[in-house]
Amino acid sequence: MGGSGYTGIELLRILLNHPSAVVTVITSRKYAGQEVSRVFPSVTGVTDLVFSEPDLEQMAEAASVIFTCVPHQTAMNVVPFFLEKGLKVIDLSADFRIRDKEVYEE
User: Fold this and answer.
1) pLDDT tens string 6-30
2) Which residues pair with 65 in a beta bridge?
């Protein structure tokens, strides 16, 4: 989730080269409907994935692990949904790095 930023595309490169990983969905509101390789030529010939709008239900059905690479305060709104579905979530945003809300808001 959030595949068009720097963290998202770097994560995609890592996962595409991992022998046990299968990327089923990559999301981007900005690039929805566009081939990932047209937006990021460095993955041309490696994947035929197309960016999609974030659809939490579809993502939950298609994956067993969700990676979030989204802007601040976005992950805190979607991660609970995936956890309730029993999925593993690896959050690469800042939302869950600091447990104390007051410290985070500073």
Assistant:
1) 888 899 999 999 999 999 999 999 9
2) 88
The CA-atom distances, in angstroms, between 27 and each of 14, 61, 79 are 16, 15, 15
Q: Which residue has the tokens 């800042």?
A: 94
Q: How confident is the model at residue 106 (pLDDT cuts 50, 70, 90)?
A: low
Question: Which one, of 1, 18, 10, 8, lies nearest residue 59 by Cα?
Answer: 1
Residues 42, 33 contacting (CB under 8 angstroms)? no
Task: Specify the CATH number for the domain of residue 87.
Answer: 3.40.50.720
pTM above 0.85, yes or no: no
Evaluate whether residue 71 is within a structural domain: no
Q: Does 43 reside within a domain? A: yes
How many domains is the chain partitioned into structurally? 1
Distance CA 104, CA 100 (A): 6
